[in-house]
Amino acid sequence: MKLYTPANTTVMKATTALEEKKKQDPILDEDLSSVEESEDEESDSEDEESDEDEERYKMILAVRTDLKMTSGKVAAQCGHATLGAYRDIIRKYKRRPSELTTSHLEWLRTWDVIGCAKIAVQVPSIDLMEDLYKKAKEAGLPVHFVIDAGKTQIASGSKTVLAIGPAPESKINPVTRQLKLL
Q: How far is CA 149 from the centre of its chain?
């Protein structure tokens, strides 16, 4: 199967970096090696394209502020959210490739290669977090909830962080634009 790779110079230049990461990271090598890259050649004019014209990719980490987590707890939960979202896409692709839209895997690969931007934002309640989850799902975005084990500060079963993405900003911004930075 041939997948579309966004035609921008950053992604093309980062192909070598991805190959190096694959050598060092068995998960990338095993899980993403079956995905074929587009073999379309870019014209010279596309190579001269500025970074401003390229689509940016990011992951939103929506953190519940009503739980009053310490900064260390927030950092740990955001780490869990990032890794969980990444693993969800890989696992879904490996187990049920027909159920995963190929765009999710493409977005993950591009995001991974061009810098893994993560933006932490505030969500003041569980109700708003669940509304955000529904909107993101309806928009076709990958999502991942972190549910705390309850071993430290937070009650067991509490949803602490919602990861949305990785995805292009053009897809993620309409869903998350109203949220304030953490």
A: 23
Q: How far apart are CA 175 and CA 182, in angstroms?
A: 17
What lies within 8 Å, CB to CB, of 73 at 6+ separation is: 152, 153, 154, 160
Which stretches does DSSP call E strand in the chain? 57-64, 118-123, 143-147, 159-168
Domain ranges of the chain: 55-176
Separation CA 48–CA 10 (nearest Å): 11
Q: Are strands 159-168 and 143-147 parallel, antiparallel or unpaired?
A: antiparallel
* pTM greater than 0.90 (yes/no): no
What is the CATH code of the structural domain delimited by 55-176?
Answer: 3.40.1490.10
Give the position of tokens 């890794």: 83
Give the tens place of pLDDT for each residue, 115-127: 999 999 999 999 9
- Select from 153, 148, 177 the least CA-distant residue to 164: 177
How far apart CA 125 and CA 86 sit, in angstroms, is 25
Rounded to whole angstroms, the Cα distance separating 100 from 78 reads 24
Residue-wise pLDDT for 5-26, tens only, equals 444 444 444 455 556 655 555 4
Query: Which residues, other chains included, contact 20 with Cβ-Cβ below 8 Å and sequence gap of 6+?
Result: none
Report the distance separating Cα 52 and Cα 64, nearest Å. 32
